[in-house]
Amino acid sequence: MTEIPREEYILKCTSACAGCGGTLSLRYVLKAAGRDTILVVPACCTSVIQGTYPNTAFNIPVYNVAFASAAACASGMSTALRAAGKKTHVIVYAGDGGTVDIGIQALSGAFERGTDFLYICYDNEAYGNTGMQRSGATPLGARTTTTPAGKTQPKKDLDAIVAAHKPPYMATACPAYPKDLFQKVEKALSYRGPTFIHILSPCPPGWRFSTEKTVEMGKLAVRTGMWVLYEREQGKVTINGPSKAAMVKPLPAEEYLRAQGRFGGISAEAVSRMKDDAAALAQRLQKEEKGIC
Amino acid sequence: MLTVATGNKAVAAAVKEAAPAVVAAYPITPQTEIVEQIAEYVSSGELRSQYIPVESEHSAMAACIGASVTGARTFTATSSQGLQYMHEMVNWAAGARLPIVMANVNRALGPGWNIWAEHTDAIQERDSGWLQVYVGSVQEAFDAVLMAFAIAEDERVLLPVMVNLDGFLLSHTMQPFEVARAGDFIPPLHLPHAIDPAAPGGYGTLTGPEDYFKLRWDIERSMRDSAGVIRETQERFARTFGRKYGMAEEYRCEDAEVIVVAMGTLGREAEVAVDLLRGEGIRAGSMRVRWFRPFPRLDLSGRDVVVIDRDYSFGFGGVLAGSLAAAGGARPFSVIAGLGGQEVTYEDIAGFVRERRPGEEFWFGVNGDV
């Protein structure tokens, strides 16, 4: 039985939007990480959510740093702390823009060098902080302010890129499954070396759904198979319970897509391609789990 | 005891003496030898630093920032395109008040590809909040790096310091120099704002205009105070190691009717030109500007001034000449020379002095003879 600590590191009065999946996720991340933690945050919604100087709504040291530099900054921080004999967790908390686009070089470098840190990408599938422009993580067909007719390219496969660096532990998560997220953060922090968690972070204003439906939207993403919860521990894949169930009997993808305004007017071809891509991912992960490939 | 080495090796030797906890760097011609030598020291155990072989200069400075904010002494080195690529983080380091020391081997910017000496790379960082010193010999490169740590880490300063040396002319030129044993010359670093889980708080959080303004002013206040710290540190260095340095190095200026002002190796070449001119009966002197930030006060009153800029600000002019004109009201003869490693001899410099035209700008090698 997992005991989630009562201690809160995210205090009241953040400037997060109502129903923010990123802040909900961070709440559980910090509960799992505990007090001896430094958060490194590049430009993203969390830069604003924590509040304005001289106040902060985060009861933990936060180093805010330039957009492209989070993984490199954390790399220097972790190296200096370890050289001083300190075990302080260094956690990057970065959005999808700061991870799959502008920050990917620093991310790749830090992973290749074996930096002892946890990199978390909370992914709301667009540049949320600047008002929802497309990112490499925006899915096919989704409308953003820079893809007003829907994105014509599929979502970048960030997890495959990270997996190519062979980190000791990586996982996907979603704040609709807080216990799962909590356990994954604990597990990631138990490893030495670079670890990675990719959190699908439902975003009411960006995805255009009602603010009370964040958890529902996260569950729909998993149950339709549009988001898969899994871990890759020492290279070994484990598909987690909710996604295992969804692979046996998935809900139709349309239930997830139709619930969000950003997919309004999406073409039948795009929906069909997203379904094919989701099925291919599920098949690949199932094979990997069985050790077939 | 004297040893003979290149400017790059002298920088690395000074870093070994300063023993930073973390060095994060990326290779670039003509700086590469510095990071190779440091990696060698770390590998052989002569230097107990963590060497982070980052994947870019942007990440080099980002890693230095992450390390420095824990209270660790940090060093990096770069040049030209590398400095330009890390520009965003160069500004971040100063704004975050982190005493990082960086050696920059001055090199021209592309295109076209040009690996030779020019100051425009560092000059473009002049408004970033970094202290900048330009050296004129291998010995001075060593001494300046050692002093840079003491100055940057002084609680009255807490700003990063950039030590500039001319590409190839110093980086790859061997000269005899003395390796000073640092001993306790650089006190241990106590960063008052080191990040600490026992004292949670936000660093670099969203800051409104009123507070942002105060933080900017605080950088300027420390920049002004740094002039005194530089003087103290250079005096302490002279007492400890016997070599004297000023904000600028004056040469035969006492009775001079005309003064040549330049930075880096051109400033040393100017001294030879001064001797030549004195032999001809021209009362010449020279001032080699060492510290460009904070900018020194130079006494140029009542004398003709010839400024040689190995840099250029398009649409404005030579930056050193413009800075002197702004600071002291001088009407210098502004010579633009040495860009992209163009050879400038003491005879050329003597020619600039003989044929000076106050208030005018002259591009050596483009405008023909003076």
SS-derived structural category of chain A: alpha/beta
CATH superfamily of chain A: Thiamin diphosphate (ThDP)-binding fold, Pyr/PP domains
Number of strands of chain B: 16
> What is the CATH class designation of the largest domain in chain B?
Alpha Beta
List the topology elements.
The complex is a heterodimer of chains A (293) and B (370).
Chain A: H1 21-33, E1 37-42, H2 45-49, E2 62-65, H3 70-83, E3 89-95, H4 97-101, H5 104-112, E4 117-123, H6 158-163, E5 169-173, H7 178-189, E6 194-200, H8 204-207, H9 214-223, E7 230-233, E8 236-239, H10 241-248, H11 253-257, H12 268-290
Parallel strand pairs in A: 1-2, 1-3, 3-4, 4-6, 5-6
Antiparallel strand pairs in A: 5-7, 7-8
Helix pairs in contact in A: 1-7, 3-5
Chain B: E1 2-6, H1 7-18, E2 22-24, H2 32-44, E3 50-52, H3 57-68, E4 74-78, H4 80-85, H5 87-95, E5 101-106, H6 120-123, E6 131-134, H7 138-153, E7 161-166, E8 174-178, E9 202-203, H8 209-241, E10 248-251, E11 258-262, H9 265-279, E12 284-289, E13 291-293, E14 304-309, H10 319-328, E15 333-336, H11 346-354, E16 361-363
Parallel strand pairs in B: 2-3, 2-4, 4-5, 5-7, 6-7, 11-12, 11-14, 14-15, 15-16
Antiparallel strand pairs in B: 1-8, 6-13, 10-12
Helix pairs in contact in B: 1-2, 1-7, 3-5, 9-11
Keywords for this entry:
heterodimer; A: 293 residues; alpha/beta; Rossmann fold; eight-stranded mixed beta sheet; 12 helices; 39% helix; globular; B: 370 residues; 2 domains; seven-stranded mixed beta sheet; six-stranded mixed beta sheet; 11 helices; 16 strands
